[in-house]
């Protein structure tokens, strides 16, 4: 999706359209969750400190994130994907891999399928998406960024070498600033440079990762699209605009527990019979200490009310001084296991009756 969170905000509030929108809370403690394309022209990017974004563009409109709304739109988009293939691997709320080797609807090519999916997304959500079409995941990921926003890029097998020839090594997955610096020290700036050095030399210097880099420089990626993977943890968390004492956290814990329970219900629909046995409360203090308190009871939570109560009760196990202030709270469910031995769990999230 194109500037997903910011685009949802601009869609839902016409007054924001055409303006530099930054999805974040204002303040020194906040980071940018998303920036509209208007904001990006000022150099604002995701994960940037919000205070820096404000300096770059004093006229930017800051909008607090609303993840429940973004999740709802993400589910709409996922529904579109699944009309064309069952092989969908979500990477985040706004990005996914699709394997259309054997699609539900054969439109003659992956390119045509991508075009139709993007059109359907726009028709049903009024949001634009970009796509990369290629023989493997690595190339498709790179290509998906090539013609943003609202475009697509096709890399055919015979085009792979030319497509990658001048690609900076910093665009390869797993190559961060440190690795890019090490490669620069060897005179390596592009995929062509990696190929020239050779797999053996790269492996000698960087181990198995060096050989993997050489494979990527050639466009080799044998990873399959992974679908249907069971979730290991479900959680929601919030960072506050200002620090709060422990006693003031209950409304936030309740709200996050409700969001987590709703996410749990959707996970149940995908993987019926898998129950979460552990409730987790996460706290971050004003000096950035992270605390977690958890409870794995004999009987897992069986209702939203039970989860809310357990999460609130876990506050009582925090033994820090009453003067401690907290900048973040989160509520999660983990310890997933099959429901063997818990027959009552079969009706945890009963299917909706047809009207």
| The top level CATH class name of the largest domain | Alpha Beta
Count helical runs: 13
Record the strand order, biggest sheet.
Answer: 8-11-9-10
Distance between the termini: 34 Å
The CATH homologous superfamily of the largest domain is called DNA polymerase, Y-family, little finger domain
Poorly predicted runs are 341-347, 350-355
According to CATH, the fold-level topology of the largest domain is: Dna Ligase, domain 1
Q: Please compute the radius of gyration using only Cα atoms.
A: 23 Å
* Shape summary: globular
Total number of β-strand segments? 11
Class by alpha and beta content: alpha+beta
| Run of helices and strands | HEEHHEHEEHEHEHHHHHEHEEHE
Largest sheet: 4 strands, antiparallel
CATH architecture of the largest domain: 2-Layer Sandwich
Percentage of helical residues?
25-40%
Total domain count:
4
Tell me the strand percentage band. 15-25%
Mean pLDDT: 89
Characterize the structure shown.
Helices cover 37% and strands 19% of the residues. The chain folds into four domains: 4-65, 3-Layer(aba) Sandwich (MutS, DNA mismatch repair protein, domain I); 68-155, Alpha-Beta Plaits (2-Layer Sandwich), CATH 3.30.70.270; 159-217, 5' to 3' exonuclease, C-terminal subdomain (DNA polymerase, domain 1), CATH 1.10.150; 234-347, 2-Layer Sandwich (Dna Ligase, domain 1). The chain has helices at residues 4-12, 37-40, 50-56, 67-81, 110-125, 137-144, 160-165, 177-185, 191-197, 199-206, 208-217, 250-270, 304-313; strands at residues 21-23, 34-35, 61-63, 88-92, 95-98, 131-133, 152-154, 234-245, 274-285, 290-296, 325-338. The strands form four sheets. A four-stranded antiparallel β-sheet has the order 8-11-9-10, with helices on one face. It has 355 residues and is α+β, with helices and mostly antiparallel strands. It is built from 13 helices and eleven strands. Helix 12 (250-270) packs across helix 13 (304-313).
